[in-house]
Amino acid sequence: MAYDLHIEKTNLDLEKWINFISENSDLEIQHQVEVNNPFTDEVIIMQTPNSAVAGSGTIYQFKDRDNTISITISNPKDKDIPSLKKMAIELGGVLVGDEGEEY
Q: How many angstroms separate the Cα of 68 from the Cα of each of 14, 49, 90?
């Protein structure tokens, strides 16, 4: 089962997020993701507007729902949690799990 973490309660807007990505040498803007289906080898393309990808392959999905901005990190590794907490603080927010628990 997949488990996501979210950076929430930020004072982010799209411009601040894009600037954060451009100032972080490990992040790159990514508007779509391509993955291969391991069973059929079909290439699947998913649109991920204004998202970022880290050098490690971690994807940060930018979400704007009703003017509430959050960044979702899907299936993070336990070893990544300290750096995700640091990122949340840098963005003025908190790191929260799918069940609402704060890290």
A: 11, 16, 18
pLDDT at 72: 95
pTM exceeds 0.70 for this model: yes
What is the DSSP code (8-state) at residue 102? B
Alpha carbons 18 and 57: distance in angstroms, whole number: 18
Q: What percent of the chain has pLDDT over 70?
A: 99
Smallest CA-to-CA distance from 73 within 55, 99, 51 is with 51
CA distance linking residue 78 with residue 75, whole number of Å? 9
Q: Name, in order, each residue with C-beta under 8 angstroms of 29's C-beta and a sequence gap of 6 or more.
A: 18, 21, 22, 50, 51, 52
